[in-house]
Amino acid sequence: MITVVACAAAAALVVAFVVHRLIEERREQSPAAREVQNRLMMAGRIGVCDACGRSSLTGHELRTLAVAVPHDAGSADLWVARLTAALDAKSWAEASKMNEFDGRNDGVIAYLLRCPIRSAVVLLLSTSYYELMSEDSWLRREILSEDESASAWTAATAEGSMILP
Fold first, then answer.
1. In sequence order, which residues have a C-beta less than 8 Å from that of residue 141 and are 6 or more positions away?
2. How far apart are CA 31 and CA 144, in angstroms?
3. Please, are residues 48 and 8 in contact by the beta-carbon 8 Å criterion?
4. How many angstroms separate the CA atoms of 122 and 113, rounded?
5. CA separation for the pair 138, 122 (Å, rounded)
6. Is the separation of the CB atoms in 35 and 128 below 8 Å?
């Protein structure tokens, strides 16, 4: 277990270094280069697949299930509570209706990671997109049952789905 954690940490550091170098480049990047950068950043942030235990996420697919962004500072707890309640109830359709990304405000994002090794889906609940490189941004990581996996994956938007490198 310690070896897996050490490998995941090393992989995350390498990915963070590569992403940092890519961000430092001042040249205009092609859409393909930006897509590769996003995939590397997400793979590095996730680190290890909870379903198969591997630090290599090659072939794993990531989808966004829900994005909850509070409309004002006083409603932050309400929005997180609504999303958490939908996830706890396994109400994937209800959760998927919460799709209100706003780059000006922090939020909570529910991702689904489909593992090709174990044919399972992992629910990943994270704080704002801009905090992906912080180690404490994962609020929840849960392996879904076979039935939950199928219905959650169907509810999640295929738009923006990415296969991780």
1. 50, 122, 123, 124, 125
2. 33
3. yes
4. 5
5. 13
6. no
DSSP 163: E
Please state the φ and ψ torsions of residue 51, each to the nearest 5 degrees. Answer: -80, -45
Task: Find, among 52, 56, 67, the residue nearest to 122 by Cα.
Answer: 52
Using one digit for the tens of pLDDT, what is the confidence trace for 110-122? 999 999 999 899 9
Q: What are the tens digits of pLDDT across the range 90-143? A: 999 999 888 776 666 667 889 999 999 998 999 999 876 554 455 547 888 999
Residues in CB range of 106: below 8 A, 6 or more apart: 69, 127, 128, 130, 131
Q: Phi and psi dihedrals of 155, rounded to 5?
A: -70, -30
pLDDT in tens, 4-24: 555 565 555 555 555 555 555
Exposure of 39 by Cβ count < 10 A (0-12 exposed, 13-18 middle, 19+ buried)?
middle
> Are residues 163 and 59 in contact, defined by beta-carbon separation less than 8 angstroms?
yes
Tell me the two tokens of residue 39.
């995939």
The pTM of the full predicted model, rounded to 2 decimals, is: 0.71
What lies within 8 Å, CB to CB, of 146 at 6+ separation is: 119, 120
